[in-house]
Amino acid sequence: MSTFTWLTGHKPALTEAQLKRRQQLAEAAPLDSRTLQQRFVVLDLETSGLNMRRDVVLSIGAVVIENSAIDLSQQFECTLQREGHQASASTLIHGIAPSEIAMGEEPAEALLAFMEFVGDSPLLAFHAEFDQRMLARALKQSLGYRLQHAFFDVAEIAPLLCPKAGVGNAGLDGWTQHFGLQVQQRHHASADALVTAELALILFSKARQQALDSLPVLLQQLNSRRRKLAHSI
Q1: Tell me: the pLDDT tens digits for 29-39?
Q2: For the packed helices 215-232 and 154-161, what is the interaxial angle rounded to 10 degrees?
Q3: String of b and e for 132-158 (b: at least 16 CB within 10 Å)?
Q4: Residue 12 domain-assigned?
Q5: Count of domains observed in the chain
Q6: Residue 13 lies in a domain
Q7: pLDDT tens across 52-66, in order?
Q8: CATH code, domain carrying 185
Q9: Full domain range(s) for residue 84
Q10: Is the pLDDT of residue 135 over 90?
């Protein structure tokens, strides 16, 4: 790898090879009339905390849904190296020791690999706003890259399609219990991504039963629900 680096103002320093890889990253595909059969990347992030301006991404776990199935041949898992990272209250939740962080992948390399894995696919997450903002910030800081991929929130889709479930604000645990799903290890990025994908498959099946088999139509229904909720406050 070339040792030539690019550094201007506050932009991140990248090697020549990393710049080339960044340039070759796929652009986000337009949603158009894409169906729920297409490729989705389901991700989960573990972070140093919940402050979206101060905390950082520590690990990324992701799996792929395609053709109404989880493709276990397409999985991504990576721990990011963070200099000076120390144990905190969050360590008790995600269980990632500072020694693991110290041995992790250099952030630019990890994030490039992840976006290469994503390709032009839309992303799914539970409470997606947090993952989207944390990922976007990490990509901007480490790669000078602007995230433009569509994110869909499974936490929004679930009550839209299952309004009588009675889960309320119980979160991922509540929905997994409602559908009888087994979680191997909560607050582990790969395990949470996998159970989120399993939940998404159940919801996609319900969406098709309700004639919501295209992303634009599903998004339209989500936007309508958001407006109703906003007016009810």
Answers
A1: 988 878 899 99
A2: 80
A3: bebbbbbbebbbbbebebbbbbbbbbb
A4: no
A5: 1
A6: no
A7: 888 999 999 999 999
A8: 3.30.420.10
A9: 36-232
A10: yes
